[in-house]
């Protein structure tokens, strides 16, 4: 069994284990973040680059460092390998850069986004984001398209992690959506705007690391931190029937899968992921439909749990951050210091 040392902690793992999974075996702060890798979806990983790590010793047989940072989610460990994640200034610097890249096109609309409070990019933004941007170009935007009555697609928020396409491939019986076009024009879409109707399609919402796919039956109903999550189960002939019901008082506002500390669906005692069907997710909102097991804690990494919303906010400096601009380029306006729009500050130079 190969032994790998990550940030000074040594662990023995099965041959073929990736650095990321070896780190998860150790647990704690040294685990690299992951935006596209999802252990329950075959083939995922290798897209977002937030999990890059520094390999300071390739193996016992080859003690040389690997010159470039490597994606920990798809690099297998070798015996004697030494890896730096949190202890590597290079990695920390790179991660800041990746977050900056991801935020080039991702709108900063957390205050109105249903994913806020449980968004991996929001969490990364708090940890690695910078207060200003160097990006002066126009952002990539997409026309809104309708993919059915249950899932809302906000393509502007998508980071193209491909997780939802793996759900479509591996969980649903007929896949009708995927990534079309390439490069800057790549987008998640359903060809000729088919509705996504497969019985397991709602799981796409749960694997989306950002707010690009949200639940239309919950949209704008409440901020997640006002709800109390409970483990609950019901007899279901389509899925395992084990879910989390998010309640406000005695009302169920939404139903999701149970997620682990890496925001992935939990597995049952036989190691089978506990995906849920659309009937449990959208149609069982009466507490009488469920046997409530007990209250859950908010996720460990959540910005809610870490009290980050309680930190003092920095003053907005006018002229410093083009992310404060909104609207079409020809009538972009700025938000003033007290948060109100000042039309006289309309920009004409497109900066
Ligand atoms: S919609 Fe969400 S899950 Fe799908 S590729 Fe975009 S970010 Fe990933
Ligand atoms: S999690 Fe490794 S590249 Fe995205």
In short:
This protein is α+β, with helices and mostly antiparallel strands. The chain has helices at 19-26, 89-105, 120-128, 163-171, 203-207, 278-283, and strands at residues 3-6, 9-12, 52-57, 70-71, 81-84, 151-153, 177-180, 187-190, 213-215, 228-233, 242-248, 251-256, 291-295, 334-335, 341-342.
Task: Write the topology of this structure.
Elements: E1 3-6, E2 9-12, H1 19-26, E3 52-57, E4 70-71, E5 81-84, H2 89-105, H3 120-128, E6 151-153, H4 163-171, E7 177-180, E8 187-190, H5 203-207, E9 213-215, E10 228-233, E11 242-248, E12 251-256, H6 278-283, E13 291-295, E14 334-335, E15 341-342
Parallel strand pairs: 1-5
Antiparallel strand pairs: 1-2, 3-4, 3-5, 6-9, 7-8, 10-11, 10-13, 11-12, 14-15
Helix pairs in contact: 2-3
The structure holds iron/sulfur cluster (SF4) and FE2/S2 (inorganic) cluster.
The site of FE2/S2 (inorganic) cluster has 13 residues, from loops.
- Uncertain regions spanning at least 5 consecutive residues: 316-351
Radius of gyration: 21 Å
How many domain regions?
Answer: 4
Q: Give the strand order of the largest sheet, numbering strands 1, 2, ... along the chain.
A: 2-1-5-3-4
- What is the rounded distance between the termini? 56 Å
CATH level-1 class of the largest domain: Alpha Beta
* Quantity of strands, as a count: 15
Bound small molecules, by name, code or SMILES, are: iron/sulfur cluster, FE2/S2 (inorganic) cluster
Q: Please give the share of residues in helix.
A: 10-25%
Largest β-sheet summary: 5 strands, mixed
Q: Which architecture of the largest domain does the CATH hierarchy give at level 2?
A: Roll
> What amount of the residues lies in strands?
15-25%
Average pLDDT score: 84
**What structural category do the secondary elements indicate?**
alpha+beta
Helices and strands, in N-to-C order?
A: EEHEEEHHEHEEHEEEEHEEE
Q: Which overall shape is indicated by the principal axes computed on the Cα atoms? A: globular
Within the CATH hierarchy, at the fold level, what is the topology of the largest domain? Ubiquitin-like (UB roll)
Tally the helices: 6
